[in-house]
Every structure is written in structure tokens, then in C-alpha cells.
Write a structure and sequence with these properties.
This protein is an all-alpha fold and 385 residues long. 53% of the residues lie in helices and 0% in strands. The model is unreliable at 1-25 and 27-48 (pLDDT under 50).
Length: 385
Amino acid sequence: MARQVRTMQSRILTAQAPLSSLRQAWRKPQRMVGTLAACGAVLLTAQSAHAAMNFCAAPALQTSERTNADPGVKALVSYVQSHLNEPAHALPKLHTEGTLPHEGIYDQSVEAEKDLDLLRDAALAWRATSDDRYLKLVDRLLFAWVTTYQPSFNPIDETHFDGLILAYDMTASALPVKTRNASMAFLTKLANGYIAQVDAQPRPLQGTFRNNWQSHRVKLIAMAAFTLDNRKLIDAAQRLYIEHIGDNIAPDGATIDFTERDALHYVTYDLQPLVTAALAARRHNRNWLPEKASSGASLQAALDWLAPYAAGIKAHEEFVHSNVAFDTKRREAGLPGYAGPWDPKNAAELFHLAARLDGRYAPVALKLAPTPPAWLAVCLPLQAR
């Protein structure tokens, strides 16, 4: 198998904009003109079946570059290297939704979910270094999960499977046939199951088929659909994305989750999976960021609504008027973030992801965190213009 090695473009960190500039930007939103400014990655080509999304754009590093790699790259590779002999923690079921630490299988699920992030990071380490040890780790963990786990179609319990999808997306062409075929079957089952679940609901959608749960369903459907390059699944993903934008986001950008929970925590939790879905679509030349529902609502409007809070221009006391009993339960249990002022840093990853869609969000992202999370710095090293 031939491997094409290309130079990794250095991550660009732009200077932080003053608050006056941020205020001006959100008063007069510009039309999104940026594109993901990253070169397409070339994966190993072997068998006929392969992933088609190519969500992560970072190419491999040349040998001479690895010793001077970006600190984020070094940190990620070092982390993966320290887990090369980690056993798979695959479970047939995960469940954290609606439970507190030490309840049910919460702790066991959280520990097992670490595999899903490790899968993503190992695939990125392989992408960056071409070291087959990391590919073997992906193969071992991926096969264990796709042959053990049985989808529950609870999107809160399963949202971390985005890490597994990204790992498959980056390594599919180089995986053993049995792992690739098992992964394709798993992702097809996951996407079709979620689509069938949503399509069986009466319209207009209500409850958890309207709030942040649906954002996580849309993310998983879209990521699976694009990496499988399945036209039927892709069309369903786009249809459900637009429907959800109309159901969840008001024309002014406020989300139903903010109305129900009175918490920016849930606005962030609602929007991050939608931005991730939009990034998957962008790799197939579909621009979901400004895409409008019939109401005029859009993901772009929702990000613009949240941006002044993230930039520190506005503040908010969290969960004061939430009508969800579980929010009170978590506050009484002393879990951080369920009382008091919202910490804008909780939106750092969201805005670093959004900056890969539209460079207007870069000043907010950099204000919240000077560098993106290590996985994102390796996956999509360049923000949009």
C-alpha cells in the first residue's frame, strides 16, 4: 500500500479581537464566506470499501517535522503512546443519562466511554505519524466495540460514539477487512435506527425529539451517513437537520433548551453536536451553517445569539427558572455548573469547532481558550477565513 506524506500546515493563532470589535461583529453579522482552509488528507487505499467523509483534514507529518511538531500534536501522540496496551472496555450498553455519579452503571459507563475518545486520538496519532502501532490500537478497540455494543438509541448515552465514527473515518481503508465490515454494519445500524426512531414520531416533533437530544441524534446520523457515503442516509440527515433547526431554534437564535432549562450550559450542549454535523457536511461541500428552516431559523443565528455571552458581553445565572426536576437534583448533589453564573469557558470547544466553519467565530474561540483542544488542533489545524 502506498502512503502519500504531505507537510502539515501550522496551526494559525490570530490575535484576540477587542470587545468593541466583538460587539460590532454580532450587531452586524456577515455572510459566512469561509471554507475549511485545510488540505484534504490522503488515506491508504487498499480495499474497495473505505470511509468517504474525511472529517479530519490534517495530513501526515514528514519525519523531519515530527521532532518539531506542534505541542498539541506532541501531547496527543504522547497520550496515545501511554495507552498502547490499554485493554478494550467495550460494554454491550452504556447509560449515564438521567443518573448521577455512582448510580446504576454511570461510573462503569464513563470509564468505558474513555475508549471512544482514545479511538479518535489513536487514529489522529496514526494520521500524524504513520506509526502502525496506533493503527493496531484503533483496530483492536474498534473491533471490540462494534462487535460488543448494542445500540440503545438513547442519544445522550451514545453521543460519545462520534469519537468511534471519526476513528473509522480516518482509518477505514487501512483496517483489516473484518474490522472494516463490522464497523460499516454497526454504523449503518446506528444511523438507520435513529432515522427510523425519529420518523416514527408524530409531527410536529415534541419533547426530546425537539430539544438537545435531537441535536445529538442528528450529529450521529450525519457523521455515520457521510463517512459511509450512503446517499439515502445523507438525504435523511439533511432533512432531519433542517427540521430540527426549525423545531429547536427561534428566528432570533434562541434555542428551546434555553427556554426549558434557563441555562447556557444546555445551549452549548445543544449547538455543539449541530456544529459537528455541519462540519461533516462541509467535507461533502454542503454548507449547513446558514441553512434556514421555513421559519428563518439557522445554526448561524443560534451561534450569533450565544456569542455575546461567550465573549463576556452578557452574563447569565444558570438554571434559575429551569422546569426540569433533574437540574434541581444535580444542583442539590453539588455537581459543578448547575448554579451560579455561567462560565463562558464551557463554550470553548464549541466556538473552536465553529471557527472551522466560519472565521468570524475565531476571536471568541481564542478569547475562551488560546489553543483548541489537542484532538481538534490535529484534526482540523486551520480555522476558516
